[in-house]
């Protein structure tokens, strides 16, 4: 009986028992599935063309608010102001890389283009890894405006319960999830956030609860190809809704975690009980800039084979916290 590896990986510089590899390699690859990525769907990426190297700083300017004064009639003295632009600095201080080695003998036996296959996989994994880290930074470390989270959310009314780490919203029923989404929408309204371009991200758990409600089944629309590509599942109460398993979360019975613990299923939030995050916003809330600054082929100096490695530098920042809303749901 054939024995298959359990880790899903194999070495690209194996130890040979003879002069060649006796196995017959199939020229077909088993399908691999990737986490949905939606960075360009939810963040402002206008500055990507302006970065070249890790360590650069991008100064993002925002139009200042102009003061409106009362006019008392002809002959009155008008007061003029000199608008001062508002800016936020986003540092390109993060970097991730991949380095892939392909042994000549292995490549010959495989009968497929292993180098292109592996580098294509590396690019996808790179995107997932960056999104995982950026989600934690945006939604947990920097976070939404103080009026857009917690048990007294609402810049005007302070009347919307969006949950807290100590007392999350009980997600035991589909209705609770739908009610939370409506409260998140109202919270954005109280911050005068435009209705156009609003997005909402749910975990798979909240998505399946939401789909049990009659209103969700009636209002969700969307094409299957966009669901596969970006996790988009439709529109609901002015939100374009996405599903992602990369949202920050807390695991049941897990000890308090300080700082970032990024995993393939999202970064871990502080908390000893189940905590899942629901996030809403617009592209005005978060900025992101990234580019593959270096990709280079090398000839392996210690074996017969080639190496391809790539470096991606990036930065991420919440630039308008008023346009970002977070809710915590789970086990009270």
Q: How many DSSP-defined strands?
A: 12
Structural class: alpha+beta
The string of secondary-structure elements, in order, is: HEEEHHEHEHHHEEEEEEE
Radius of gyration: 25 Å
Task: Explain what this protein looks like in three dimensions.
The chain has 332 residues and is of the alpha+beta class. 23% of the residues lie in helices and 25% in strands. Residues 221-229 and 252-265 have low confidence and may be disordered.
Write the layout of secondary structure elements.
Layout (H helix, E strand, L loop, with lengths): L38 H4 L14 E6 L23 E6 L2 E10 H7 L3 H29 L26 E2 L3 H17 L8 E4 L1 H7 L3 H6 L4 H7 L1 E5 L2 E5 L5 E2 L24 E7 L4 E14 L5 E14 L5 E7 L2
Parallel strand pairs: 4-12, 5-7
Antiparallel strand pairs: 1-2, 3-11, 5-9, 6-7, 8-9, 9-12, 10-11
List the main descriptive attributes of the protein structure presented here.
single chain, seven-stranded mixed sheet, 332 residues, alpha+beta, three-stranded antiparallel sheet, 7 helices, 12 strands
Report a brief summary of the structure.
With 332 residues, the chain is α+β, with helices and mostly antiparallel strands. It contains 7 helices and 12 strands. Strands 4, 5, 6, 7, 8, 9 and 12 form a 7-stranded mixed β-sheet that branches. A 3-stranded antiparallel β-sheet has the order 3-11-10.
